Amino acid sequence: MVQQMNVGIQRELGRDIVVRADYLHNYGTHFIIGRTIGSVFNPVVGGPDSVINLESSVKTKYDGLLVSVEKRFSHNYQFRASYTLSKAFNYANDDQIPFSNGPLNPNNLQLEYGPTPNDQRHRFTFSGILDLPAGIHLSPIFTLASGVQWISWYREAVNAFRNCSAMRVADCFTLAQI
Asked: Is 34 within 8 Å of 98 (Cβ atoms)?
């Protein structure tokens, strides 16, 4: 279930320029997560295999501020410049693919709360239309955006260290570098 709220204001400046600001808030509940609840011997793989419980206990949150300036078409051109400042959080970064990795500590999901893999804080877009002679239309789109986080190495390292109890320490460090 997703609850959404937004509020905005729009103002016309002159005949053909519009300035707009919007705030958007989304709060999602009951998203699916795969939580490891134990292990069993699996004869197919010849060893232990995880037992994963699919449950709808994950929450998501998105907050965004959207600001734009638009010049409506006149004098053979128009443009729009938009900026978005946003923040997206969820638990275990796992709500869309419940079997991918799962939480590091399945007994404490609060430790998993953080930015989503696609959390992009800043995004600026400029687009326009320019009518040129001979019926040629030029329509550029430029986008500048901050990067998204790259944290897959962390989960792989933690999973490698979990399996170190039956290994020598040197082998464990080699495995963690994968």
From this structure: yes
Tokens of 85: 């400042």
Chain segment 12-47, per-residue pLDDT in tens: 998 999 999 999 999 998 887 778 888 899 898 888
Residue appearing with tokens 């959080």 = 89
Print burial letters for 137-164: b (CB count within 10 Å at least 16), e (below 16): eeeeeeeeeeeeeeeeeebeeeebeeee
- Distance of alpha carbon 44 from alpha carbon 52, whole angstroms: 17
Rg (CA), the chain: 24
What are the residues whose beta carbons fall under 8 Å from the beta carbon of 37, sequence distance 6 or more? 51, 52, 53, 106
Q: Where on the phi/psi map is residue 107: left (φ > 0), alpha (ψ -120 to 50), or beta?
A: alpha
User: Helix, strand, or coil here: 5?
Assistant: strand
Query: Two tokens at 44?
Result: 């197919």
CA distances from 120 to 13, 85, 140 (A): 30, 8, 23
